[in-house]
């Protein structure tokens, strides 16, 4: 199954790390894009997951990737699964 690529304004930066993206022209945040043009790590298509849809808040404009609510949610969900398996 092939995964869709990001919108053009993000896909242009695929497999790159850039400083200042979109409206963010003042912070010292590094934005890392995967091979599909999305922010964050590569997707593993066989891995079950949750898709977050949204705007610059979902993207985490102006915040480090570790501080985005998507990344924080991922850690919380993984932690709950680990605790449940014990």
Please write out the topology:
Layout: H1 8-11, E1 17-19, E2 30-32, H2 56-59, H3 69-85
Antiparallel strand pairs: 1-2
Essential attributes:
86 residues, two-stranded antiparallel ribbon
Molecular structure report:
The structure is a single chain. The protein has three helices and two strands, in the order αββαα. It has helices spanning 8-11, 56-59, 69-85, and strands at residues 17-19, 30-32. By secondary structure, it is mainly alpha-helical. It is globular, with a radius of gyration of 14 Å. A two-stranded antiparallel ribbon has the order 1-2.
In which range does the helix fraction lie? 25-40%
The percentage of residues in β strands lies in 5-15%
Question: How many beta strands in the DSSP annotation?
Answer: 2
Tell me the series of helices and strands, N- to C-terminal.
HEEHH
Low-confidence stretches: none
- Indicate how many domains the architecture comprises: 1
CA distance, first residue to last residue: 33 Å
- With helices defined by DSSP (H or I, 4 residues minimum), what is the helix count? 3
Largest sheet: 2 strands, antiparallel
Structural class call reads mainly alpha
Average of the residue pLDDT scores: 84
Q: Strands of the largest sheet, in order across it?
A: 1-2
- Label the overall shape: globular
Cα radius of gyration in angstroms: 14 Å
Write a short abstract of this structure.
The protein has 86 residues and is mainly α.
